[in-house]
Amino acid sequence: MRLYALAVYLFLYVPIGVIAVFSFNAGRHAAQLQGFSTQWYGKALSNPFVMEALQTSAIVAGASAALATIAGTLAALALQGVGGKPRAIFDALLYIAVMVPGIVIGIATLIALVTLFDWVNPVLAALWPLADQAPQLHLGKGSLIAAHGLFAMALVVIIVRARVAGMDRSLVEASADLGATPWDTFRQVTLPQIFPAILAGFLLSFTFSFDDFIIAFFVAGSETTLPIYVFSSIRRGVTPEINAIGTMVLAVSLVTLVVAQSILQRGRGRGAA
Fold it and tell me: Is 221 left (phi over 0), alpha (psi -120 to 50) or beta?
């Protein structure tokens, strides 16, 4: 069993390690190691198309993570007062949203947004003083933020709700007995206890949005995120520059995930204490 587990881990992580190693290749061939060099990292960071795609990915990831964190936290708190069959239905919907393949979510989101735009844009044109100057909704950063935020919201709800379920309810009851308002109780009692889960949910949402290709491919419109840029470049052939970009994205994702897991562990430790 241990050998089987080791084989699975090697199968998963050796290709990633190979990409990282060949990103330091001094030659121009992606599959032939010809010395050690960091030139491809410098070339990638000086590429204006890479930096523009990186900026788009960072903006979309930050905005969608904030949207998912706010909406997901509010939903998790609201679900605490729901029980019985409605709670089971909400739980099923949350886990289905997480388990549905990304391509299905991408196609469904694209259809929903295009249908919404076809309905809203004529209304805006009719209400605007000058119809030809009326703002028009279209696919772009906004659709990316909405799509990623809606999907990541399910992750935030699951994470925050688990922390809320393990929270010491006696503190909330004591705060109410002492005459604190619901807002004061939330701000001074509930929020400090669930904040690690909220922050972890934000980081995980940011990582998902920053790394996502499938959903972004359908709803990005004319915008180019970093994963879309990498995919477009790979179609012309894999180069050490692509390996360098992939390694940097991997490093950012790993650091973010480790920080999120560390925050969750500390939050659980404080809750147990």
Answer: left
